[in-house]
Fold this sequence. Notes:
The protein is an all-alpha fold. It has helices spanning about 10-40, 50-55, 60-70, 70-85, 90-115, 120-125. The protein is elongated.
Amino acid sequence: MMSSKEKPVMPLRRGSLQARLYLASAFFLIAGFVSAVIIYATAPAPDSAEQFYGMANSPQYQQQLEQIGGTGEVVLAEFHQWFDSLWHGKPLAYTVAVLCAGVAAACFLAGHFLFFETPPDRGDDQKS
């Protein structure tokens, strides 16, 4: 039995950790979506000349790349072009939104399931 002077410390601490994780989740979600909207609104239009005359899009480049490195090199080059395109212009806004939503979901789930183990109450073990 606890006396009236003793206060349960762990439930308060666990609750405050959970509240902090929920607040972090909300912060990442709001900040991420606001950032994504700002990036989307200020992103320049894609350069049509680069898309039309781009070296990597030409059939000659693809054929030479396949001759030099094989089909695997062509696939890796296409993956590299796709991954590189995520960090410029309007696709960057989508990338930021998805990454921030993922971090917010991780914080929310960590708070919901409390992955952090609390130590057992020592008051019950010391009874003799």
